[in-house]
Amino acid sequence: MRETTAPNMTRSPMFAATSTLFLLSASFMHAQATPTGKKQMTDPAKVHASAIVIDTHADTPQRFVDEHWNFTDPLNGGMLNYDSARKGNLGAQFFSIWVDPGQYPANASARRTLELIDGTLEQVRKAPDKLQLCTTPDQIIAAHKSGKFAVLMGIEGGHSIENSLGLLRNYYRLGVRYMTLTWSNTNDWADSSGDIDDATVKHHNGLTPFGKDVVREMNRIGMMVDISHVSDKTFWDVIETTKVPVIASHSSARALTNAQRNMTDDMIRAVAKNGGVVMVNFFPAFIDEQWRQAWNAQKPDRQKAQDALEAEYKAKGLPVPYAASDKIDREFAAKIGRAPFNSLIDHFDHIIKIAGIDHVGIGTDFDGIPVPPDGIDSAADLPKITTALMGRGYSADDMKKLLGDNLLRVFGAVQAAAEKP
Questions:
Q1: Cβ distance 271 to 359 under 8 Å?
Q2: For 112, 142, 361, 396, which has the most beta carbons within 10 A of its beta carbon?
Q3: pTM for the whole structure
Q4: Least confident range of 15-19, 94-98, 260-264
């Protein structure tokens, strides 16, 4: 999805890219003291290579459907493909099934959702020697052992169910294993952080009674509840309603970057108490305050360009393809420059300190953001996260939890609590 929603702020000076060479040149080949006092593997490259690395959010399915592009093709301007995943030891990816509510009418959400699901499943059909559809933690582990890339799906935005628990169940039957309750738009049963200050939008003070039924039904069938994008009140209603751990599939820390999409420290603590996991987002506007302010200062000009693009496609009777709108966002992001790599690492560090190492993971938002931070160009660069965090004193065991084991634990807990057929 396009991550662009944020309040206007005063323009700050543009800033140049920050080099990460120093971080990446550090050597860890000697024995390293860990928080537990144990000695263990300390070469970040080996630690990263030995882990099951899981990313809970990438918007690549737009490319499958709209561009007729295959996951095994060259990147061609994208941030994630099969080759970059292998280079970065990314072993499992939750592909985001996101329907742009501004381009597809409410009664057409399900059709677009099904097209994106089909586009993702087609990738597995076309490359069965490389890709495997996975719907359980055990299948992820088995795929990893067999050398195959694990393909998973998560719906981004509850508007995709068109107020139907039957549709929700059918998406689960097709392989969807989490749903983000809202995108940047408030739907008929849950408030979003993206429009919570918009007086023209009908809000519900969090979850409606039906919204709570959605959460309970997700608990019952074994679908993870994702609270990224929701309003603060919706978040607290979810925590009160759910009987199993939740995830934030791609959210960062509001204490460091004052974006409404980010989570407060109290929310992060609540996810930890719930047993869930917060997956750090890579969008510069969510991880670097200076970049966020520069991005928001561009909003009037950026919106003008997007409106002109929409008018062009509307005249043709067509929805705006994501690649076209993303091109505009990339052009505006290029005027700002790259956010510092350390800003991303600071968010991992902060959430670990607030929630504990058992409650943090990776939710890149690849192919759904105009640009990642400096040093991260594609999934091939994910080992830099391990190098940087081990440079701050985190152990091999810590990294294996963050890179994938924490998500496997939550995924397993949600499925174990599901009603047995």
A1: yes
A2: 361
A3: 0.91
A4: 15-19
Maximum Cα–Cα distance across the chain: 65
CATH top-level class of 21-416: alpha beta
Which residues, other chains included, contact 374 with Cβ-Cβ below 8 Å and sequence gap of 6+? 17, 18, 19, 20, 338, 339, 340, 341
pLDDT digit string, tens, across residues 331-354? 999 999 999 999 999 999 999 999
Could you tell me which residues are beta bridge partners of residue 362?
Answer: 55, 280
Q: What is the pLDDT of residues 187-239, one digit of tens each?
A: 999 999 999 999 999 999 999 999 999 999 999 999 999 999 999 999 999 99
Q: What 3 state SS string does the chain have?
A: CCCCCCCCCCCCCCCCCCCCHHHHHCCCCCCCCCCCCCCCCCCHHHHHHHCCEEEEEECCHHHHHHCCCCCCCCCCCCCCCHHHHHHCCEEEEEEEEECCCCCCCHHHHHHHHHHHHHHHHHHHHHCCCCEEECCCHHHHHHHHHHCCEEEEEEEECHHHHCCCHHHHHHHHHCCEEEEECCCCCCCCCECECCCCCCCCCCCCCCECHHHHHHHHHHHHHCCEEECCCECHHHHHHHHHHCCCCCEECCCCECCCCCCCCCECHHHHHHHHHHCCEEEECCCHHHHCHHHHHHHHHCHHHHHHHHHHHHHHHHHCCCCCCHHHHHHHHHHHHHHHCCCCHHHHHHHHHHHHHHHCHHHEEECCCECCCCCCCCCCCCHHHCHHHHHHHHHCCCCHHHHHHHHHHHHHHHHHHHHHCCCCC
